[in-house]
């Protein structure tokens, strides 16, 4: 009995997995069908992936990457999601993330809808993302886009694991481009990556959110038996603590908690005029 030998090696399997992010068995089957021809196997994986696209629509895409670019005082950041960390670290997925960012920058887009409708290689970027997801064998989506402008913009990307692309990204725009302002912008961007503020100033916090927090603070103080004459001061103190958690300029600065972020910026002769923070899946 004669057994037919495969026309490919373990190295061929590894290389195609890195190109596509596809599973081991899917790659082996494609190489078998293609008689070892890597390019033909790539096409087989793509076609089979497109056929399964509908089945993937309901899946959760909570892994992925964040990519950012700054040019001429404009910062643009995108988040691209996939289903597994295996695909998130695949070269092909990282290349796709860079493509999405490049199209966003080239078209100076301001919203996700415009980005996905932008032309790329004779089709829309949205269609290209769908096709690349087919090759990868997972649901792949461009989840969100941020754009900020300032005299100087700092982009900070953070890897939560050395094996994965950036999972956290921050754009920090300030109103000055002095050396001190640039240093402060970067330091505050790093701070923002770790402390995740929701708003720049207290004025941006919705009034209903503030009132709800004030009500909770009042009810809690009363339940604790605090004296009536001290309630107002206690409530305001707790509200200040709430602002320190969610408002960037009120947060204690990561490198020196004795001062606020706002003080760090003012000492550098600048102020934040806009910021954005993404964490993959959040």
Automatic annotation (TrEMBL):
Question: What compartments host this protein?
Answer: Cytoplasm
Q: Which GO terms describe its molecular function?
A: translation elongation factor activity
What InterPro entries does UniProt report for this protein, alphabetically?
A: EF-Ts_dimer_sf, Transl_elong_EFTs/EF1B, Transl_elong_EFTs/EF1B_dimer, Transl_elong_Ts_CS, UBA-like_sf
Keyword Protein biosynthesis in record: yes
Q: Which UniProt keywords apply?
A: Cytoplasm, Elongation factor, Protein biosynthesis
Q: Which family does it belong to?
A: Belongs to the EF-Ts family.
The record's listing under HAMAP family reads: EF_Ts (MF_00050)
Protein name (Swiss-Prot/TrEMBL): Elongation factor Ts
């Amino acid at each position: 009995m004669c057994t037919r030998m495969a026309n490919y090696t373990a190295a061929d399997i590894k290389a195609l997995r890195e190109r596509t992010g596809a599973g081991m068995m899917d790659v082996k089957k494609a190489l078998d069908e293609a008689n070892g021809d890597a390019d033909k196997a790539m096409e087989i994986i793509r076609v089979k992936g497109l056929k399964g696209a509908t089945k993937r629509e309901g899946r959760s895409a909570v892994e992925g990457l964040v990519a950012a670019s700054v040019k001429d005082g404009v910062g643009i950041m995108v988040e691209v999601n996939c289903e597994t960390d295996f695909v998130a670290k695949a070269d092909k997925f990282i290349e796709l993330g860079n493509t999405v960012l490049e199209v966003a920058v080239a078209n100076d887009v301001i919203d996700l809808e415009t980005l996905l409708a932008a032309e790329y290689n004779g089709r829309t970027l949205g269609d290209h993302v769908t096709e690349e997801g087919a090759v990868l064998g997972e649901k792949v989506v461009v989840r969100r886009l941020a754009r900020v402008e300032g005299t100087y913009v700092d982009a900070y990307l953070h890897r939560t694991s050395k094996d994965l692309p950036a999972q956290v990204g921050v754009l920090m725009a300030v109103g000055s481009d002095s050396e001190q302002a640039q240093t402060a912008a970067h330091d505050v961007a790093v701070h923002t990556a770790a402390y995740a503020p929701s708003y720049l100033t207290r004025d941006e916090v919705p009034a209903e959110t503030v009132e709800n927090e004030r009500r909770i603070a009042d009810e809690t103080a009363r339940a604790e038996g605090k004296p009536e004459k001290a309630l107002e001061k206690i409530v305001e103190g707790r509200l200040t603590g709430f602002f320190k958690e969610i408002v960037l300029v009120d947060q204690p600065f990561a490198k020196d908690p004795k001062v606020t972020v706002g003080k760090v910026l003012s000492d550098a002769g600048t102020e934040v005029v806009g910021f954005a923070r993404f964490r993959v899946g959040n």
